Amino acid sequence: MTLFTGKNIEDATAQGLASLGVTREAVEVTIVEAGGRSFFGLKRTQAQVEINLKEQQVIQQVTTETTAVITEPQTASVTEDDEVQLRVRQSKNQVKWDRAADATMNYLADALGALEIEGSLDAEWGHNTMNIQFETPTEGLLIGKHGKTLNSLQALAEIVLAQNGIRHPQLMLNVGTYREKRAETLERLAYRTADDVVSLGQTVTLEPMPPYERKVIHAALAEDEDVYTESIGKEPHRGILVGLRSQNGDEVE
């Protein structure tokens, strides 16, 4: 994602085109900030735009660059055509991810506005992974009880990514250090539950939780010789069963 600023939208766009060395027809321009008061109530004095090469332009550029680099016959198993096609696929995937990430960020910005929550959000993405970090003085309002509001926003963000061609991404939304603290809480819950299973001699079923939180529970008890874990139920009501192992390591019904 390439951002450019200027005294107005036209000026920011002109600076971006000059920097990239392309014409207006070869790019897609998204207005990030028109100037004045931003979506979150933060005062800005300049306009800001995002400029991305159109997909066909990226393919042509990659093909030209690759052809220029390969000047000698290839003796390895990867041919010129293979390398060109690989770089084209990588560039097309990056273009798709950039568009999907931009749509997701815009969606979340609208959601925060609807909730009347002031703050900021930042994101990193690549290799089918996207991490979005919220910073706000009203963290509790955005997190919700046991993280339900934040988890709901994450589920909606996954839908936006899917609508833009990104399937099964590793997406994580975080507010401050909530996810890290929540993971510590879940680990303590896992150990306490394991103790209960051993002392009572019966299985315990934990309340439904999102995939990320179930993963923390599974990981915490993965090496435990006394208990096993199993995800049960269907989304969004999928929870975890913690059961007792027998002396030979088999699961006890």
TrEMBL record:
SMART domains: Jag_N, R3H. One of its GO terms (molecular function) is RNA binding. Residues 180-246 form the R3H domain. The keyword Cytoplasm applies. A probable RNA chaperone. Forms a complex with KhpA which binds to cellular RNA and controls its expression. Plays a role in peptidoglycan (PG) homeostasis and cell length regulation. It is found in: Cytoplasm. The keyword Cytoplasm applies. GO terms for biological process: cell wall organization; peptidoglycan biosynthetic process; regulation of cell shape. InterPro entries: Jag_KH, Jag_N_dom_sf, KH_dom-like_a/b, KhpB, KhpB_N, R3H_dom, R3H_dom_sf, R3H_KhpB. Belongs to the KhpB RNA-binding protein family. The gene is khpB. Keywords: Cell shape, Cell wall biogenesis/degradation, Chaperone, Cytoplasm, RNA-binding. Has an N-terminal Jag-N domain and 2 RNA-binding domains (KH and R3H). This is RNA-binding protein KhpB. CDD domains: KH-II_Jag, R3H_jag. GO terms for cellular component: cytoplasm. Its main location: cytoplasm. It holds the Pfam family Jag_N. Forms a complex with KhpA.
